[in-house]
Amino acid sequence: MHATTPINVDKLAWELQRHPDRYFVNSLINGLRKGFFTGVSSLPEKVLECKNLLSTTKCPDDVSGLVKSELDNNFVIGPFTKAPFDIYRVSPVGIVEGKYSKKKRLILDLSAPHNSDEHSSVNDLINKEDFSLSYIKIDDAIKIIKEYGFASRCFLHLLDDFLTIDRPSANADATMKILVSVFASLEIPIAKHKTLGPVTCIGHYSYGS
Hints:
Low-confidence stretches: none
Mean pLDDT: 87
Protein name: Reverse transcriptase domain-containing protein
Number of helices: 6
Oligomer: single chain
């Protein structure tokens, strides 16, 4: 079974052939091709089927449509008439609406069940020391601008968003064109309605926008 991604993995591997961190490159390319290791150190010992979040009862048609979209894009497999494993876990799904875009999206609560002595959540089964995760925040971008001022020039990756910071004297249009060109060559999809710049003032929306 191979992972599904719109990214041109062969092209990305070619572009990274001289990257000094070969372990990182191999992990990235292998993960995009075959799927990434979840970090789950031990499997659940009992079957557990969690109930979906209450938000799904308010928008059942939206939930069905979003699940169908996941299936059509080969992001998930199923549905199953019989459980494919003897021991399995069904985590609850929910639905959230973007504060500004009003776009609905599915969420999967891998921290369920909460406060259970009998069952561990999927997240509880992941070693936090080996698989810690931290995000670049918009505060980091502000700190860079305040610290370096007009000398600022960097590229930040904030979850699924990207932010470039250029000096006022730099050709920001060229930077933007290069970034868009790189994404296009690697077939990385870009949300055009969320693409902005170059500008001197931007709005920052929280997750779900």
